[in-house]
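During the second year of the project, the team shifted from modelling isolated chains to modelling whole assemblies. The rationale, set out in the original proposal, was that interfaces cannot be judged from single-chain predictions alone. As a representative example for this report, we include one of the complexes processed in the last quarter. Its constituent sequences, exactly as entered into the pipeline, are reproduced here:
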Amino acid sequence: MIKVDQLTKSFGKIKAVNGISFNINKGEIYGLLGPNGAGKSTTINMLSSLFKPDSGTIHLNNTDLFSETNSCKKIIGIVPQEISLYDELSAEENLFFFGKIYGIPTKKLKNKIHDLLEFIGLSGRKKDAIKTYSGGMKRRINIAAALLHEPKILFLDEPTVGVDPQSRNRIFEIVERLKSEGLTIIYTTHYMEEVERLCDRIAIIDEGKIVGQGTLEELKKMIGEKEIVELDFATSDKEKIEELKTILPFEAEITNNKLAIKCDKNKDLKEVLNLVSKLNLSIADIDFVAPNLERVFLHLTGKELRD
Amino acid sequence: MLFTLFKKDMTLFLKDKKAVLLTFILPILLITLFAFAFGGTGKKKSNPRTYTVLVTDLDQSDSSKETIKQLENLKGLTLINKNLQKGKDLVKKGERLALLVFEKGFSEGIKKTHFFKTTLYFDASREIETRMIYSFLMQHLSQNQGKEILKNRVNSFVSNTFSGMPPKMKQNIINTISSENNASPIQIEMQSVMKEKSTKENIGLIQAVVGTAIMMLLFSIANIGGSLLDEKENGTLKRLLYAPFKTTEILFGKMLTALSISIAQLVVMFIFSWLAFGLNIFKDVPALLLMILCTAFAVAGFGIFLVSFVKTRQQLNGFSSLIILTMSAIGGSMIPLFIMPEFMQKMAVVSLNYWGIQGFYDIFWRELSIIEIAPRMLVLLGIGLVMTLISIPLFKKNIISL
Ligand SMILES: Nc1ncnc2c1ncn2[C@@H]1O[C@H](COP(=O)(O)OP(=O)(O)OP(=O)(O)O)[C@@H](O)[C@H]1O
Ligand SMILES: [Mg+2]
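Output from the structure prediction step:
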């Protein structure tokens, strides 16, 4: 359904997107997970035909986006990262206008608006100006505005930014329902929980590049199936921690005065602790972490997802 | 598509109380202010200004002397006797407004041909003031000389037709007829450079209305254009770009809005001036409507040009104030052109205001026909068109590039 090949885009010296490729099947939710400035929005803007890529191709539904822009535009719905609505107009007026620019006949559009407002749970406020809405409500209207023309493909660019947990859950429900209706969705975020909950496949993106992609399980396998034992030392004696790392028969990573060891906590912990006491290191804290995306991210990029 | 964009813009405009205020209320206040400042409160004229005119009597006849005496008695006119050469010099140097010359054969002219043989020399750079003097003189000369001419006419008619009539009887008839107040209108032609005026619209009022209206129009249209930048800033422009239609339609949608609001604003201004100050807007309705349309088009073009030229709302605000104030100052929106020195008047043609103001002057003051005003209308349409054409690439470069 979506085929992206070797996409690049620079702004002056900044390579915002640097050779991104992916394929998305019909009905999938594909997550783009990455920190601020990773190039998520730039990718979405190219997919929406707002930016022309410096190189690379985009095919939507087997059609080249930049040679048949208008027919592609009709099948894609885009929820931009910023709330893009007329503050002074009511929800209904906003939706009516954004439906009209897709040439939807008035009667059909009115029914659609009615249904969508029900769907996002804002029928009661439809006559109020957007400026009187809460952040979460605006986000929901922002999503609805992309659905009026019944797109086959939906791009959601960080749809939950600045939203309270309750509204966030509503947005998740909306996305899940859209998936069940058969939409193909690209979902960008820098929240791991979101991709874990929603996405069939995930691309981890950093500094304009996809550093790893696959299903959640596949990604976790990249760092091995074992759990991680995380030791927090009372000392900041870097050399000793380094020494421990070299004599340990397991894969390990140091961050600050923490050592993350990939091992089986039931079988291997005794051995680890023996070595620790041999080196006269004292442990302040010990943690057992199941492999998660945060770990994957750290493993792939060498940095924490949230800064 | 254009209509959808237009409808949305109009809805937004009407919800923006500040914009509505700027477009309709502020100009009304300013027009009122200027109308009083220029003494232009329509029919209820306050003290008319006094004009000083040089006069030379080359005829030295009884009737020329009598006429000069009558003119001297008029309120609002001061006559100073000067010889022909000196008088012409003073007018040339711009020290005096005009010189009225009673040519040789003035009295003969009245008796035989019923013409005033007079010439009015005037300072070209003060054309409009001279026009005022001219119509002022015309009015009083025709009133006062009417009786004299009538007397002469009756005299010659009676003498020619009833040559045998006793002199006493003839005198009686003449006296009776010419003493009547409703002396029949007499056609008078004056050897002058200018066409006669039929009505005397108050020039101060025209200046106040037209000058202010065009300046305020520019301001409110810059604001309408600015809404395009607001759309860029609040992200709605992005949504417009997501939709399947040509990007230039966004620009033309704005143009349509600007055009409609301009027309509405000008119409409201003229109706207000009519109701409040008695400006006769029904003199030439088709010409007025056409002029409104052309002015609105030029201003709308200017508006989208401005907005395509800048990148942010702040830039627009600074830039548009500068351009509009400059154009208004040199184009005659603030200070009437006719009191500016000649080189300033020549420079005025570079401003949009000039063409609009002069066009409306043509209608209300010079009373030209549509055909005669057409060149000005074409200039306005040209300005609008050129501005629009320049805007298209600029718009793509500055606005669409997010
Ligand atoms: N219009 C632009 N002009 C110049 N630089 C840009 C522009 N848009 C994005 N960039 C740069 O490109 C890089 C990627 O930005 P992008 O907005 O795609 O990141 P993102 O992944 O969406 O981040 P965020 O999570 O903060 O939204 C950044 O370094 C940004 O500064
Ligand atoms: Mg982004």
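The pocket of adenosine-5'-triphosphate (ligand 1) is lined by residues A 11, 14, 16, 34, 36-42, 81, 158, 190 (CB under 6 Å). The longest strand of chain A covers residues 14-24.
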